Amino acid sequence: MTAIAAIATRRRRQDRVARGLLALGTMLALIPLALILYYLIVKGIGAWSWSFFTTDPTGSFFGDPGGIKSAILGTIEIVGLATALAAPVGIGVAIWLVEYGKSNPVATAVRYFIDVMTGVPSIVFGLFIYITLVLSGIGGTFAGWKGAVALALLALPIVTRSAEVVLVLVPDTLREAGLALGAPRWKVITRVVLPAALPGIVTGVLLAVARAAGETAPLIFTATIVKTSSFDLGAPMNSLPAQIFSDVGQAQDRLVTRAWGAALTLVALIFLFTTLARLFARRSAVR
Amino acid sequence: MIGRPPLARLPDRLVKWGLAALSVGILLLIGFFFVRLYIEARPAFEKFGFFGFTFTNNWDVHAAHFGALPLLVGTLITSGVALVIGVPVAVATALFTTEFCPRRFRGPLAATVDLLAAVPSVVYGLWGFFVLIPKLRPAEQWFSDKFSFLPFVGGHVAGPSYFIAGLVLAIMIIPIVSAITREVISTVPTDQKEAALALGATRWEMIRMAVLPYSRAGITGAAMLGLGRAMGETIAATIVIGNAPVIGKSLFDQGYTLAAVIANEFGEAAADPLHRAALIAAGLVLFVMTLIVNAVARGIIVRGPARERGTASEAFGATG
Amino acid sequence: MNPEVRDPLVRPSEVSKRREVQQERSKERVPSQRGRDVVLEHLTAFYGDNPAVSGVSLHFKANDVTAIIGPSGCGKSTLVRCINRMHEEIPGTRVEGKVMLDDVDVYGPGSDPVAVRAAIGMVFQKANPFPTMSVFDNVAAGLRLTGKKGRDLNGRVESALKGAGLWEEVKDRLDRPGSALSGGQQQRLCIARAIAVQPEVILMDEPCSALDPQATLRIEELISELKTRYTIAIVTHNMQQAARVADSTAFMLNGELVEFAPTDKIFTNPSDSRTEDYVTGRFG
Fold this sequence. Notes:
The complex is a heterotrimer. Chain A is 74% helix and 0% strand. The longest helix of chain A has 37 residues. Chain A starts with 8 loop residues before the first helix and ends with a helix. The mean pLDDT of chain A is 87. Chain B is mainly α. Chain B has one domain: MetI-like (MetI-like fold, Orthogonal Bundle), CATH 1.10.3720. Chain B has a two-stranded antiparallel ribbon. Chain B starts with 5 loop residues before the first helix and ends in a 6-residue tail after the last helix. The C terminus of chain B is likely disordered. By secondary structure, chain C is of the alpha/beta class. In chain C, the strands form two sheets. A six-stranded mixed β-sheet of chain C has the order 6-7-8-3-9-10, with helices on both faces. Classes of the chains: A mainly alpha, B mainly alpha, C alpha/beta. At the A-B interface, α1, α3, α4, α5 and α6 of A face α1, α3, α4, α5 and α6 of B.
């Protein structure tokens, strides 16, 4: 008689079925991604051309629709400004939370609300800025910089949270070594702690950029959608997401093609920043 | 006496209080925005009453009557569909990645699923409108005809609908639900899993005995975060839902959501203060709903290791 | 080589006295021949390219308690985890050699690790009852896998808890969470869970190392009772424990089996000088 009784076939079958279902579920998650990338490339590449990237949208419904130059420029400007606003503030808040606030009640409240901010729909941020900056008429109505502020609000919690995580990981022994040498607190932070946490902070900033670049809702109330390229952040400014949104609504083939081309451009940009962010993340993990 | 002259201590103090002011300032800013939102929305609440505004089924721009029930219902239906489709897929993906996938593919697989979060909302809308809607129409019409005896099914399938919106939202919430579930599952202590295996459990039985019960709270929290995201999603929803300010009779009818109405009617509301107030009021309702859902979700999810590793993936939170 | 070990940590008189008591006890029970022989043949276990266990051949006699002793890192835990094929659950590991359960090679081509683990039970170093399950559900966990239900299930849970000496303490709180028990009770709960599925061999990996002396004593008494129905292998770093409970003892060093003999001999008259050094406390 063998010493080991076999497992019931019913159980074996259940195990196999479960594995199959889980694999199927995973496929169901990956198929949309593949389809989106496929269509983006197939329909978007056709729109890409030299003039696509170097001419502004003409705004004409029939005839030549023009390219997306102002959209690309606008995205770069607006997201650039948003990052310039969100990064220092976000890192500053993270530094305060980790180095000074620690676990006191105010810090806990700040942490909690920064967390809350990650769940706020981006259109609500757009509304905030619309109400406080556009309606009130500060500096005209729509303007690129107002869109940047809305995006900065969105990006802030991302920067703060990743910065906080890596700052906490910097060993206290490093701080103590700096302080023991007689250096003032702020110098220890800028000379010792920040450099150690830098790759992780950069990751957070890059992720924030990727996220901000793709947002549409905050921009339609603040920077709105225009056609012309400009470097004037004080005036309405175009952006890739806004341009795509506008073109999608038009029932004209060439505009739709432009929308695909712009979408491919935007996704390429975002994937680029995402990949950069992941590379930096790996660098900060390998220390 | 050992000490530094007061002037030398100044930078330290400046830094400390400056950063503190910054941090508290953020808190105050959020509070300020909330108040301003409410003030701007008040005309609508005053005209229709809070419950009148939120729960009346009549969103009629021309008659200047704003009852947001169709929007609220639309938000709930599309989010519901998103949860029903998206959460099982996300959890299955997380389980597969952590428990069954060969080790060296785990990282790449997780990274690939997370890429779904890097696709911006407007691109989901574009793809949903020009690819999903036409391609799924025949199947939807077949389903609608075959199963018309079911409640909320039946009738003509036009194209944009609650269902398509819910489907697109489902795809959009998969990355975040999956990422958090992965974190939660990987914190299950090994000795629990070993205890199950040592009893003679198959891999799936081990997951049922040791992994899932332990992770139940965390997975629920992840699903709620997904819900919050789906509710707040604007641009993709407005492109594929049809923007019809009525409560549809079927899942395949066109509808509206709180977020979509704001994006869609914004332009024409610029000149009409009441309309504008109504849109802002809708935004306020949406804001409060997502706040509550997110607060509950974060209360449930285990903090600590899950939070830290979740940062990068949670950073992808595009809602509009 | 001294015929009598000078200053052993365990005095010969202690050893023989305890053996006598145990022999008296076991004479009271009718041996039920449930346990089986386990024979290891040239067992080698790798972590990656590193052999943690090298070429160990060992015979665990049916219905005996065999202790495996040795300094930290000698491979004793790894050895025991190879017997119920738990070692291979760690990624990057490999096992060579044979583990014979009577006439069946546990690593043979047709062998199913899941079935092996149902026949060879394990109790871990740190008690690991399922936290979301009640006392009853914990013990029933393994039984439910094979589809046991209703009164049959209740009966087996009860006899398992009795066999683990825990029944009297928990019979009125079977629906309380398993984690609400004390450390010693939790470990006995894990023992009950293991014996509920009626294995033929029970492996114990330092089961008492996290417990206080009283709880330890209770479990040692339990082991002496359990051996009438199971073959027991116990890994321990506590030599006195080995002397108290084990019929035979194996001494391992650096992944190799140095000496295997009846317990008294290991502690009073070991053949290998390394064994002597270890049991007299010169290292480890």
